[in-house]
């Protein structure tokens, strides 16, 4: 039920904070991660030498964000594979591969077939799923449910942040049992996770009206590019996918470092570019590099909307608009930065008079190959 909201999409974006919060419930005890769901794997989690994550669409972008965190914390190589590409190319998997599938519906045929293939070839399978008792979790060795609640709008929003949360819990669990992070380090990261819902609330509250405002003046925009780096890169991909799906506007996401390897040729006067700017506070920050990307595209006439943390004043002279997000660690910023992009796609679609809950040609769960 919409409960007073004009659309399910608007309601579900407003539920992003809660989707993260509910996915954490019962899974953090005294600053440590507690995942009884994974007990059946016994020693496997210390023995695996590789993780393959299988997913499609938005779930694949959530998985890519997860890759940055799991590799950094648990020091295990993680490959994110589009499910429909995976089992048609004789992939290398075996008994020391943990195959994690990520699916909101748990019914996506492409992902189900990939999981079945992985099982047949000896891999152990973990399903990250938002739908109790769906086919993919039933066919997997273990399941870690996300608790985003039922998602009705066709385009996925709150499930996306819940999927990242589940992958982060998995990463911290692996880091703990494999000894790659000590207890204080885990507890500091756990605290960042627990702080996310309140920060997300802040973003939901502050980004809505401003974005609706400028969505109105850019109603006729033909193409939008999204740039991000590090874990902001999959967020750029997600922002572009949502805009295509909801507003039927051509959009592409790029890793900002890739710009000079080709995409900068697309920049001409008036091109709208949305840039996810990393925090300048981290000593290894990619902030200066992204600022210089913004300068390069502005010099060629691009209009830039920056998503940047509160207090980042260096970005001001270079951006036409700045959307602010609260301060968070480098791996936690992406969860905050995605909300304005979801709002942006929804508002542009609304400004064009489109049905944001039921975009054309799409189905909520894709149960055919
Ligand atoms: C995009 C979107 C799709 C789904 C994809 C996978 O907004 O909703 O890209 O993310 O079809 O669906 P699930 O997660 O149900 O496997």
Automatic annotation (TrEMBL):
Q: Coiled-coil ranges per the record? A: none
Q: Name one GO cellular component term.
A: cytosol
Which terms are listed as keywords in the entry? Aminotransferase, Cytoplasm, Glutamine amidotransferase, Repeat, Transferase
Molecular function per GO? carbohydrate derivative binding; glutamine-fructose-6-phosphate transaminase (isomerizing) activity
What does it catalyze? Answer: D-fructose 6-phosphate + L-glutamine = D-glucosamine 6-phosphate + L-glutamate
The EC number(s) this enzyme carries = 2.6.1.16
The record's active-site residues are 364
Identify which top EC class this enzyme belongs to: transferase
Q: Where is the SIS domain?
A: 41-180, 214-359
Subcellular localization is given as: Cytoplasm
- GO aspect biological process, one term: protein N-linked glycosylation
Principal location class: cytoplasm
* Assembly notes: Homodimer.
Per its database record, what is this protein's job? Answer: Catalyzes the first step in hexosamine metabolism, converting fructose-6P into glucosamine-6P using glutamine as a nitrogen source.
What is the protein name for this chain?
Glutamine--fructose-6-phosphate aminotransferase [isomerizing]
Organism listed in the record: Pseudolysinimonas yzui
Gene label: glmS
What part of the full protein is here? 248 to 616 of 616
